[in-house]
Amino acid sequence: MEAKFIAFEGGDASGKTTQAERVSQKLNAVFTREPGGTSVGESLRSILLDPKEPVALRAEALLMAASRAQLVQDVIQPTLAEGQHVVTDRFLASSLAYQGYASGLEIDQVLYLSLFATDNLTPDLTILIDLPVEESMKRRGNTPDRFEQENIDFHQRVRNGYLKMAETQSDTWIVIDGTKNQETVATNVDQAILSSLQLA
Ligand code: TYD
Questions:
Q1: Ligand 1 centroid to 43 CA: how many Å?
Q2: pLDDT band at 53 (very low <50, low <70, confident <90, very high)
Q3: Is the Cβ atom of 178 under 6 angstroms away from ligand 1?
Q4: CA of 57 to the centre of ligand 1 (A)
Q5: Could you identify the atom of ligand 1 that is nearest to the CA of residue 34?
Q6: Mean predicted lDDT score pLDDT of the chain
Q7: What's the chain look like in SS3?
Q8: For the chain, how many structural domains are there in total?
């Protein structure tokens, strides 16, 4: 069977990391996350998430893309080539949602930059764990990173951007209701993977 590439997306505190890790174990996949996942990527991550480090928006988009390029070359592409599945906590759609829809960079330009970074690799399936912004604000911890410090409108634009992508790419995206309890979310995620990729 061909190795599959699955991305989990969603706003902060949506529960997607828990699901991504669980699915990854279940499928015996390699688990990774963005920004980060390589030593170059983790260095970029600490710059990008530092609330004390004001990174210019275009620099932010480039650093996200740089982290992604390193991850694709060092981890994702070789793993898939060896026939093993990959599950990632965030991928290219995060750049479109955060740097594009929420921060205002041109969507097409962010997409172009991301596809350059990934050498045109895109996930076989993107699972959006969708949560109303008010709910994610309630769940959030009290040491917010730079993105979590953004206001409610920003997070609303992130959510709307994700929902728009899910709607326009419904052949490769699935939306899961993140307000449900963890077991229900897990069951729905597994069903989605089974029906879309005949896995899990
Ligand atoms: P992280 O702690 O991994 O957040 P979460 O648990 O919500 O996934 O932080 C990643 C942050 O980086 C998150 O707020 C979204 C942001 N981000 C972007 O803005 N653009 C991107 O391309 C990626 C991958 C992440």
A1: 14
A2: confident
A3: no
A4: 14
A5: 24
A6: 95
A7: CCCCEEEEECCCCCCHHHHHHHHHHHCCCEEEECCCCCHHHHHHHHHHHCCCCCCCHHHHHHHHHHHHHHHHHHHHHHHHHCCCCEEEECCHHHHHHHHHHHCCCCHHHHHHHHHHHHCCCCCCEEEEEECCHHHHHHHCCCCCCCCCCCCHHHHHHHHHHHHHHHHHCCCCEEEEECCCCHHHHHHHHHHHHHHHHCCC
A8: 1
